[in-house]
């Protein structure tokens, strides 16, 4: 899945959320300037082993492990990045080249690289030295992210002690050499960004996010009275419910409770991914639940409602929207609503790279329910998700070659595109646009939709490869 994601990025140009860097001699010094600017602006993706023109040249194999180690260790080093923000890179092989992928979320704090504040504009990283511009950046972040609000009355004794061991075990299972494993509980909270000092007001202490993640139940109800998750099953008794789970506890245990509720009421299907047997139910709902937790707006009075119905699962989550409307895997920019909590859950292995939720659910859902397509939609105060649990309606046979079940939403232009690919395996997008007499941008968008639904696949290199229908 990461390889597909990288291939999509390689078709784009560098911009406010995307940076290419060569790494023929190891990790470039400018890497941390870009990390800093992404943290301070909107987040983004850095691809190491790629020229600024988007050509994959790869990272030398003998340098890969040292580059990965330097990214993890130096983003945790206050002398390099202040405050620290650990970035966990991924290694992807594209066209035989080793690419290192570093996803950087937006941060709710202002960061410095070697004492300098960097911001992102266009495809460049720019120093900010004027005090008024730094103050503007601080003010913008403090007003946008409720998770960083400081609660001076919140004490370390207000946190559940057993959660720290649970967190260490989760981190250890994902990253055995993680630097947080060797520090105290209080230091972990500081490194995670759950303790901060406001440079404008001088106020310091544990944050709203710290209370939500580690707080005792009575503390959570005190600082977040609106926070509650109502998980319901409405299959037989659709007016009331067949089963109910009401959650008002810390976010670490909330994840386990919701995953247990799903396991209790939904069938599982196992699938071979390579040689590994994976649970499709876990693959799908791990993404749904982790995104529900990380992206919720906790000062919004709307409750989170997670409902299992006969033919679908519906999730309505309190939201502070970035954009309004439906979201597709090919056309959206991932933007965490609680970046400190997003970073923390990434260390636990419960939240992956930015945008993985939409991408992975679109990948695994059709394997769990044949032909199913999820719906993700940002509304004014809520984020609405629908996961179908029954196969979608038949669209009929396209022809003798294209025979099978397709989603009912496929329109005639899309069907004609699939037919053309079936008739000419390996055809390129430009040739498709020419033969169908359509703008290239339109065909490119339609192909991305079909690729996301796993109806067509690209084989070969980016320049010489082509598209094939999935059997």
Describe what you observe in this structure.
With about 475 residues, this protein is of the alpha+beta class. The chain has 3 domains: about 1-145, 2-Layer Sandwich (Methyltransferase, Cobalt-precorrin-4 Transmethylase, Domain 2); about 225-390, Heat Shock Protein 90, CATH 3.30.565.60; about 410-470, Arc Repressor Mutant, subunit A, CATH 1.10.10. It has 15 helices and 21 strands. Strand 6 and strand 7 (about 115-120) form a beta hairpin. The protein starts with a helix and ends with a strand.
> What's the average pLDDT?
84
Assign the structural class, choosing from mainly alpha, mainly beta, alpha/beta, alpha+beta, or little secondary structure.
alpha+beta
* Number of structurally distinct domains: 3
Poorly predicted spans: 393-409
Distance between the termini: 19 Å
Main sheet?
7 strands, mixed
Radius of gyration: 23 Å
The strand line-up of the biggest sheet is 12-11-15-16-19-18-17
Number of strands: 21
Reported by name, the CATH topology of the largest domain is Heat Shock Protein 90
β-strand amount: 15-25%
The helix content is 25-40%
Given the C-alpha coordinates, what overall shape results? globular
Note the topology.
Elements lengths: L1 H9 L7 E4 L8 H11 L3 E5 L15 H11 L6 E2 L7 E5 L2 E8 L7 E2 L2 E6 L2 E5 L2 H14 L17 H13 L10 H7 L3 E3 L6 E3 L1 H7 L2 H7 L5 E6 L8 E5 L3 H15 L4 E4 L2 E4 H15 L9 E6 L2 E7 L6 E2 L12 H9 L8 H13 L6 E4 L3 E7 L23 H12 L5 H8 L3 H13 L3 E4 L6 E4 L2
Helix pairs in contact: 9-10, 10-12, 14-15
């Amino acid at each position: 899945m990461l390889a597909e994601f990288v291939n999509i990025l390689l078709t784009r140009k560098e911009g406010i959320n995307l940076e290419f860097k060569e790494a023929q001699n190891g990790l470039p010094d400018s890497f941390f300037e870009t990390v800093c600017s992404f943290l301070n602006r909107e987040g983004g993706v850095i691809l190491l082993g790629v020229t600024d023109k988007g050509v994959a040249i790869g990272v030398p194999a003998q340098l890969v492990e040292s580059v990965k180690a330097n990214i993890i260790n130096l983003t945790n080093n206050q002398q390099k990045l202040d405050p620290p923000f650990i970035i966990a890179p991924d290694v992807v092989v594209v066209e035989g080249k080793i690419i290192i992928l570093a996803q950087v979320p937006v941060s709710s704090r202002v960061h410095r690289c070697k004492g300098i504040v960097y911001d992102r504009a266009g495809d460049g990283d720019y120093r900010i030295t004027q005090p008024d511009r730094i103050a503007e950046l601080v003010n913008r972040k403090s007003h946008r992210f409720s998770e960083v609000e400081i609660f001076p009355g919140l004490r370390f004794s207000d946190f559940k002690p057993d959660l720290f061991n649970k967190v260490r075990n989760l981190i250890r299972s994902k990253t055995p050499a993680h630097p947080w494993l060797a520090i105290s509980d209080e230091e972990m909270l500081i490194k995670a960004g759950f303790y901060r000092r406001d440079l404008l007001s001088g106020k310091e202490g544990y944050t709203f996010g710290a209370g939500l993640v580690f707080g005792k139940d009575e503390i959570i109800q005190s600082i977040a009275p609106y926070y509650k998750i109502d998980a319901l099953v409405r299959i037989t008794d659709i007016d009331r419910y067949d089963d109910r789970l009401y959650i008002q506890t810390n976010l670490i245990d909330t994840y386990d409770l919701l995953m247990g509720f799903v396991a209790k009421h939904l069938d599982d299907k196992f699938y071979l991914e390579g040689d590994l047997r994976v649970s499709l139910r876990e693959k799908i709902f791990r993404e749904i639940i982790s995104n529900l937790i990380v992206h919720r707006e906790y000062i919004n009075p709307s409750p989170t409602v997670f409902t299992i119905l006969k033919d679908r699962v519906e999730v309505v989550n309190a939201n502070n929207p970035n954009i309004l409307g439906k979201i597709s895997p090919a056309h959206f920019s991932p933007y965490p609503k609680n970046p400190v909590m997003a970073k923390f859950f990434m260390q636990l292995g419960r939240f992956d790279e930015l945008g993985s939720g939409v991408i992975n659910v679109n990948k695994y859902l059709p394997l769990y329910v044949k032909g199913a397509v999820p719906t993700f939609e940002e509304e004014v105060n809520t984020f609405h998700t629908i996961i179908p649990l029954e196969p979608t309606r038949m669209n009929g046979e396209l022809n003798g070659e294209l025979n099978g079940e397709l989603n009912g939403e496929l329109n005639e232009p899309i069907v004609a595109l699939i037919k053309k690919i079936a008739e000419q395996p390996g055809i390129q997008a430009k040739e498709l646009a020419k033969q169908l007499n359509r703008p290239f941008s339109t065909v490119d968008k339609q192909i991305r939709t079909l690729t996301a639904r796993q109806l067509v696949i690209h084989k070969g290199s980016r320049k010489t490869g082509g598209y094939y229908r999935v059997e």
